[in-house]
Design brief:
The protein is an alpha/beta fold. Among the domains are: about 100 residues, ANL, C-terminal domain (GMP Synthetase, Chain A, domain 3, 2-Layer Sandwich), CATH 3.30.300; about 70 residues, ACP-like (Non-ribosomal Peptide Synthetase Peptidyl Carrier Protein, Chain A); about 220 residues, 3-Layer(aba) Sandwich (Glycerol-3-phosphate (1)-acyltransferase), CATH 3.40.1130. A nine-stranded mixed β-sheet has the order 2-1-10-9-11-12-13-14-15. It has a seven-stranded mixed β-sheet with strand order 27-33-32-28-31-29-30, sandwiched between helices. Strand 20 and strand 21 form a beta hairpin. Helix 9 packs across helix 10 and helix 18 crosses helix 19. The longest helix is centred in the C-terminal third of the chain and has 23 residues.
Length: about 850
C-alpha cells in the first residue's frame, strides 16, 4: 500500500519501542534515547503546537544542533502538518531572522545559545523541551488530513542574499526518494540480525536533507541507532566509532580526508608509514577480505564492527576514496541537491561503482543535455521555491530540473560528477576544462594537503588557477608540474597560489568558499591592499576572549598580549582541533607561547603526544565484586586502624542516589580511603577516582632503565590501583580531555566520580587553588557536586606518625550543589574552592 505521508512511518518508532534510537555525545557525556521516548516527546510537542493554536500549514523555525529533541520536534510537526523551517546551528542570527520574516514563523525552537535572540514570536529551547512538555499527554493525537503534496519543510540554502530563497519540500518528495531505498533495504533485513543494531555516526547537520535521510528517515527502517556528536576532531571520531561499535560513518568528504591523515599520522609517529605505503601498493587488485586482513591493525583501531563510510554534501576526491577502499572499507557516495530532496543517485554498498556517485534512483527520469548538464524530473524533485513570502516554480514547463552540474554516464549506468556548469572553465581555445579533473590530479601529489581550482578571467575567457595548501615547504611549481603531466595540454595549470592559512574558509558542510577565495586572489592580483582572509586562528581567539582583533602578528604573546588564561587554552585547543580537523599534542600546545608557535603546530611541527591508558575493564562485573570485597576486607579496616574518622554531614546525602561528582581537599595518598569510608554505601560502591596521570603512567609503562622485576612490580601496582580503587589517570599537563571523557563514560555507566581539584598534595596544610579544569568538568557532567573536607590528617602526616587517635581525623560533607549549564568554568572552580574551604 502506497504511503501518503511521513506519518505512515511513525509506526516504526512505536514498533521498535525500547530499541536505542539516538546517542547524543556532547561534551564528555553520552545520552541515550529509545524510539518510544522520541515518539512520546514528538506527541507531546504536537499537543503543545495545538495549545499554541499552530495549525496545519503554519511554519516554525527549527534552529539548533543535532539532537534527539531536534528529531522529536520535526516528527511533532509532521503529526500536526506544521511546516518545519530548519536552520543550520552555525548560521548567524541575521540570516535566521530574515528567514523567520520570510516564512512568517509562529514559533522558534532553538539551542540554548540562540534562545537569547530577540524575536517577535515565542521561543522554546531544545534542551529544555522534556521538562517544559512533561505536563503534556503523550498518547496518540488524531493527525490532520495530510496529502502527499502537502509541504513538509522549507530549506533555505543561501545565507548571502538580502532575500533568502527556500526550497519547498513536500511529503511526496521525501517519499519518492525513500521508497526505492526502503525496497532495497528490505532485501537485506534478514541479515541485519547478525550485526544488530546497525549504528550510524551521523556528522551531517539535520538542517540538510541528506542529514535527515541518514539521521531520521532511513535508520527507523532498520531499528538502527544514530549517534550525534559535536566534535569533528579525528581522535574524537575514532574514539566514538570504537567505543560505540559504529557500523557506518556518515560525513562530508573533508572528514574522510582528515581521518585518512590521522591514520597516516599515527603510523608515521610509530615509524611504520613506509611499510604501510608498501602494503598499499602491493594490495591493489586483491580481494577485499585479503585487504581487510592485510590492514587488520587499522580495523582494530576503528573497531571490528566498522565497515562503511558514507560520503555526501560534496564530491569525494579519488585519492581518499581509493585509500579507504584499499583498506577494505565500503565507500558509498551519493549525489543530489536540496531541490532534488537530497538524492538523484547513490552507490549500492555491495555493488560499488568506484569513482562514481552511483546509479540513478528508480522512479525518476534522468538525462544529460548536449552540454553535459544533469537534468532530472520525477517525484523527488521539489517543484517550488519560497521567496519574498511567495511560492514560485523551480522547474520548467516540461518538469525538468536543471541541476547546473556536469556529469557523465558509463556503460553500466554509473554517474560521474564532473563539476558545476557555472564553474566550467572555457579556455581561449574554446575548450571546456572541469575544475574537478584538475583538483583530482593535484590531490594525487603527496605534498598537497588540499586545493581548489577555478577560472581566472582572461579577456572574456578563462585559464585554470590552482590554490594550494601543502603539507610542507615543497616548491609548488614542481607539484603543479607533476600534476600537469597527467593532464591534456589545454587542461594544464599555469597559474597557482599558496593559500596563506592552514585551511580554506568553508561552508557548514565543509565545502571551500570558492567565492571568498576567488575574491581574495583577484584582489591580490589587482594589487589592492586587502587581506587574503580573516585569520581563522585570530577568529577563534576572538570568540574565546570576546573581542580580540582578527589580525594578529606571529610574535603576539598568548598571555601578556592576548591575556589567554589556562582555561582559554583548553577551549582554544578544542576549537582548533574542530576547525582544522587535526589532533594536537597537549604538551606542545601547553608550551606554545606566541601565535607563531600555534601556527607552527598547525603546520605540522607537533611534538610527540603522551599516551595514557584508561582501565575500562575496571567497570566489568568480576572486578566490581573483587573491589567490593577488597573494600570491606582490606581498605575499610585499614582506614579505621590508621585513624577512626569522625564523619559530619552524611545526612545531607539522604535522597541522593548518584551519580555525583565528589570533590575534596588533597593531603596525601590515603585521602581516597577516608573519602570512600565517609560516603554512604550506595555511592562508594560505584565510584571512579581520578589519580595523578603522570604517576599512574609511570607504573603502567615503567622506563626500560628499571629492572624486569621492578617493572613487573610497577605494573602490578597499576593493576591493583585500577581494580581495587577504580583509579584512572588525570594528568596535570596533558591528556586531561581524554580523562574527562573517561569520567563522562563512568557517569554514563552510573558511577560517581571522585576528584581532588587542587591537583597535588598540600605542603603547608592550606588548600591550594582549584585548577580551572574542574569547572569544565562540572559544566560537562551536569550532575550534583558533593564538596568534602578532610581535617586533622595534615598534622599527623607532618609529625611522621602512622596512626591517629579515634576522632582526631574528621571528614565533613557539604550540601550537594548543582550548577546552571554554561556557567563560567573559572567561576565554578573558585566557588567550589570557597565551599570546601568553609566546611
Amino acid at each position: 500500500m502506497a504511503r501518503l505521508s511521513l506519518i505512515d512511518y511513525l509506526g516504526n518508532f512505536e514498533q521498535h519501542g525500547s530499541e536505542c534510537a539516538y546517542i547524543i555525545c556532547r561534551d564528555y557525556r553520552s545520552v541515550r534515547w529509545t524510539y518510544s521516548e522520541v515518539l512520546n516527546l514528538a506527541r507531546r510537542f504536537a499537543r503543545e503546537l495545538d495549545r499554541r493554536a499552530i495549525r496545519k500549514g503554519d511554519r516554525i523555525l527549527l534552529w539548533g544542533e543535532n539532537s534527539a529533541e531536534w528529531v522529536a520536534v520535526f516528527l511533532g510537526c509532521v503529526l500536526r502538518g506544521v511546516v518545519v523551517v530548519p536552520i543550520d546551528d552555525r548560521t548567524g542570527s541575521d540570516f535566521a531572522s530574515r528567514v523567520a520574516q520570510q516564512v512568517d514563523a509562529k514559533l522558534q525552537v532553538c539551542s540554548r545559545k540562540h534562545s537569547s535572540e530577540q524575536t517577535p514570536f515565542p521561543i522554546l529551547t531544545l534542551a529544555e523541551l522534556p521538562q517544559i512538555l512533561s505536563g503534556q499527554l503523550a498518547h496518540h493525537n488524531s493527525p490532520p488530513d495530510l496529502e502527499a503534496g502537502d509541504i513538509l519543510e522549507i530549506v533555505f540554502t543561501s545565507g548571502t542574499t538580502a532575500e533568502p530563497k527556500g526550497v519547498v519540500i513536500t511529503h511526496s518528495n521525501v517519499l519518492a526518494n525513500l521508497a526505492p531505498l526502503e525496497q532495497e533495504i528490505n532485501k537485506y533485513l534478514k541479515y541485519e540480525r547478525l550485526v544488530h543494531p546497525l549504528v550510524f555516526l551521523n556528522l551531517l547537520p539535520l538542517s540538510h536533507v541528506f542529514g535527515q535521510f541518514l539521521g531520521i528517515f532511513l535508520p527507523q527502517l532498520m531499528a538502527a541507532t544514530v549517534i550525534f556528536q559535536d566534535s569533528l576532531s579525528p581522535s574524537a571520531i575514532v574514539r566514538t566509532i570504537r567505543r560505540e561499535r559504529v557500523s557506518v560513518l556518515v560525513a562530508v568528504p573533508r572528514i574522510l580526508e582528515s581521518l585518512k591523515e590521522k591514520v597516516e599520522g599515527d603510523l608515521a609517529e610509530r615509524g611504520k608509514l613506509d611499510d604501510f605505503h608498501r602494503r598499499m601498493r602491493t594490495s591493489a587488485g586483491r580481494h577485499f577480505l585479503r585487504r581487510w586482513w592485510i590492514f587488520r591493525h587499522v580495523h582494530r583501531q576503528f573497531g571490528w564492527k566498522f565497515w562503511s563510510l558514507l560520503s555526501g554534501g560534496a564530491a569525494l576526491d579519488r585519492r581518499t576514496e581509493d585509500f579507504w577502499d584499499r583498506l577494505g572499507y565500503a565507500v558509498v557516495q551519493g549525489y543530489g541537491l536540496t531541490e532534488t530532496t537530497s538524492l538523484i543517485s547513490v552507490n549500492h554498498p555491495f555493488k560499488l561503482g568506484k569513482g562514481s556517485v552511483g546509479k540513478v534512483l528508480p522512479g525518476r527520469e534522468f538525462k544529460l543535455s548536449p552540454t553535459g548538464e544533469i537534468l532530472v524530473r520525477g517525484g523527488g524533485v521539489a517543484s517550488a521555491y519560497w521567496s519574498k513570502r511567495e511560492i514560485e516554480p523551480s522547474v520548467g514547463d516540461e518538469g525538468w530540473y536543471h541541476t547546473g552540474d556536469i556529469g557523465e554516464l558509463d556503460e553500466e549506468g554509473n554517474l560521474y560528477f564532473k563539476g558545476r556548469k557555472k564553474d566550467v572553465i572555457v579556455t581561449p581555445a574554446g575548450m571546456n576544462v572541469y575544475p574537478e579533473d584538475l583538483q583530482d590530479a593535484l590531490r594525487r601529489q603527496p605534498e598537497v594537503k588540499d586545493c581548489v581550482v577555478f577560472g581566472l578571467d582572461r579577456e572574456g575567457n578563462a585559464e585554470p588557477c590552482a590554490v594550494l595548501i601543502l603539507n610542507n615547504t615543497t616548491d609548488p611549481a614542481r607539484v603543479v608540474a607533476r600534476a600537469n603531466e597527467n593532464l591534456a595540454d589545454y587542461q594544464r595549470m599555469r597559474t597557482w597560489f599558496l593559500w596563506p592559512e592552514q585551511d580554506f574558509p568553508r561552508t557548514s558542510t565543509q565545502k571551500p568558499k570558492i567565492a571568498v577565495i576567488r575574491q581574495a586572489l583577484e584582489s591580490r592580483l589587482s594589487e589592492r591592499s586587502m587581506e587574503i582572509s580573516a585569520n581563522p586562528l585570530a577568529q577563534l581567539i576572538a570568540q574565546i576572549t570576546s573581542g580580540m582583533p582578527t589580525s594578529l602578528p606571529a610574535g603576539a604573546n598568548l598571555e601578556s598580549d592576548l591575556n589567554l588564561t589556562s582555561l582559554d587554552r583548553v577551549q582554544l585547543m578544542s576549537a582548533l582541533e574542530d576547525r582544522y580537523q587535526v589532533d594536537l599534542s597537549e604538551i606542545g600546545f601547553g608550551s606554545a607561547r606566541t601565535v607563531g608557535d600555534l601556527e607552527k603546530m598547525l603546520g605540522g611541527e607537533v611534538p610527540p603526544r603522551v599516551r595514557y591508558h584508561y582501565p575500562c575493564w575496571a567497570f566489568g562485573w568480576p572486578v566490581q565484586w573483587i573491589r567490593l570485597a577488597a573494600h570491606y576486607l582490606l581498605l575499610r579496616p585499614a582506614v579505621f586502624l590508621l585513624g577512626w574518622p569522625r564523619v559530619y554531614g552524611r545526612e545531607r546525602l539522604d535522597g541522593i542516589g548518584g551519580p555525583v561528582l565528589v570533590i575534596s581537599n588533597h593531603i596525601g595518598d590515603v585521602d581516597v580511603g577516608f573519602v570512600l569510608t565517609a560516603l554512604p554505601a550506595r555511592l562508594r560502591h560505584r565510584m571512579a577516582t581520578a589519580a595523578g596521570g603522570e604517576a599512574m603512567e609511570l607504573l603502567r609503562t615503567p622506563p626500560a632503565s628499571r629492572g624486569w622485576l621492578a617493572r613487573s612490580y610497577d605494573r602490578l601496582k597499576w593493576i591493583l590501583g585500577a581494580a581495587l580503587l577504580n583509579l584512572f589517570p588525570l594528568p596535570r599537563e596533558a591528556g586531561f580531555r581524554q580523562s574527562f571523557e573517561y569520567a563522562g563514560a563512568a557517569v554514563d555507566r552510573g558511577y560517581s566520580v571522585l576528584i581532588f581539584p587542587e591537583g597535588r598534595h598540600t605542603t603547608t596544610g592550606h588548600m591550594l587553588p582549584f585548577r580551572p579544569g574542574i569547572g569544565i568538568l562540572v559544566n560537562s557532567l551536569q550532575i550534583p557536586v558533593v564538596p568534602m573536607r578532610i581535617d586533622g590528617l595534615f598534622p599527623i602526616k607532618q609529625s611522621g606518625r602512622r596512626f591517629a587517635r579515634p576522632g582526631e581525623i574528621s571528614i565533613r560533607i557539604g550540601q550537594p550543589i548543582r550548577f546552571e549549564p554554561n556557567r563560567d568554568p573559572a567561576a565554578i572552580a573558585q566557588e567550589l574552592h570557597l565551599l570546601v574551604e568553609k566546611l
